[in-house]
Write a structure and sequence with these properties.
Layout (H helix, E strand, L loop, with lengths): L6 E4 L5 E3 L14 H12 L5 E2 H8 L5 H19 L4 E4 L2 E4 L2 E3 H17 L3 H14 L12 H27 L3 H14 L4 H13 L3 H19 L5 H11 L5
Parallel strand pairs: 1-6
Antiparallel strand pairs: 1-2, 3-5, 4-5
Length: 252
């Protein structure tokens, strides 16, 4: 949880920033989209320095060095003024955000605990922590320049992190006999990546354990179609074996 005096920054979904007094920074207060993207970039690395050269390469790639550095200083000044705090520090040719709580950073922290619990076979903790992580994930990461390589890379990494966690949560739910939750987790993972066989298998297992064999078979067919259309591949031996067991009525 954020400290009472921390700036609260949410970059998952729409950018939302709460000052230390609890007030929300209005959209017009950021002045420019570049200022917002600089804040997003620093927030994703909360408390860790980001090289000035990296900032310039990502946000001002086609601008001369002197003008680019001036643009960074101006954007940082806009952020400090909007938030009302000296929250961006210079450090050996880098910038870092300080005194902030960031939803994406907390999400990744909780997911790391999920992985540890999964490796330990603590299924109940996997499910509980996954629920906690999901509460932080209000939506996908977006930027003002949403198609820029850095924004796409950050978004894809967060989506992969979430998909992996959801598959672990689905497997843990099946182990606990909570098959409706397994279907929920696995279904969310499939929406993120329709070519994920782990997600489809968890969905098939969840449906099968609920006695919904037709839904399980439809999940396999969706998996087969997506793999063929997007990757030009067939389902793995493991996925096909599960499908065959369901067809034979042998159970999951």
């Amino acid at each position: 949880m954020p400290h009472q005096r921390d700036i609260r920054i949410r970059v998952l979904g729409e950018l939302e920033v709460h000052r230390t007094d609890g007030s929300v920074v209005g959209w017009r207060e950021w002045r420019t989209g570049k200022s917002m993207d600089l804040l997003r970039m620093l927030a994703l690395n909360n408390g860790h320095p980001v090289r000035m050269s990296s900032v310039i390469d990502r946000l001002w790639p086609n601008v001369g060095p002197d003008r680019a550095r001036a643009s960074v200083r101006t954007a940082a000044s806009h952020i400090r003024r909007a938030i009302g705090a000296n929250c961006i520090a210079r450090q050996s040719g880098s910038l870092l955000l300080r005194g902030a709580w960031v939803d994406a950073v907390r999400f990744r922290d909780v997911v790391r605990f999920v992985h540890v619990a999964a490796q330990a076979g603590d299924h109940a903790r996997v499910v509980d922590l996954s629920r906690a992580a999901e509460r932080h994930y209000r939506g996908n990461f977006h930027a003002h320049n949403d198609d820029s390589p850095w924004a796409r890379a950050e978004r894809d990494d967060l989506l992969l992190t979430r998909r992996t966690m959801l598959c672990e949560a689905a497997a843990a739910s099946i182990a606990l006999g909570r098959h409706d939750e397994a279907v929920e987790f696995a279904g969310s993972a499939v929406l993120i990546d329709p070519t994920s066989e782990a997600a489809h298998r968890a969905l098939m297992l969840g449906y099968a354990e609920l006695g919904e064999i037709a839904s399980a078979l439809r999940a396999f067919e969706a998996c087969r179609v997506h793999l063929a259309e997007e990757l030009g591949a067939d389902p793995s031996v493991q996925t096909q074996a599960l499908h065959l067991r369901l067809l034979r009525g042998e159970g999951a």
